Amino acid sequence: VQVTESGGGSVQEGGSLELSCAASGRTDCMAWFRQAPGKEHEGVAQIIENGITNYANSVKGRFTISQDSAKHTLYLKMTNLQPGDTATYYCAADSVVSLSLRVGHYNYWGQGTQVTVSS
Predict the structure, then answer these.
(1) What is the average pLDDT value for the chain, to the nearest integer?
(2) Given 21, 56, 83, 100, which residue has the most CB atoms within 10 angstroms?
(3) Which tens digit of pLDDT belongs to each residue from 16-30?
(4) How far is the C-alpha of 30 from the C-alpha of 68, rounded, in Å?
(5) What is the rounded CA–CA span in Å between residue 50 and residue 1?
């Protein structure tokens, strides 16, 4: 499975962005991660079969993950963005369904898309 992100960019604090991730095939476990300079990957949000979602505490209430299963596309709607959200955002997928935001669970990764939030 190949996954490709799009939709990153630069916004002002408080602004919104929506990321998309196109998968080459069906996957039942998909997630968004991010990596800020000098930091490790951080799990942001996950969605598994039946639309069950899982969010990092740092983004709850601000970010919304969704998917269009027919199009094999994953989305991340980000609102009230803060400078601390600045990072490269990665889409990840795996065929094994597990409620997990651990990097090691996911075998398929995109190249990343940059999100920059300025104050």
Answers:
(1) 95
(2) 21
(3) 999 999 999 888 899
(4) 12
(5) 20
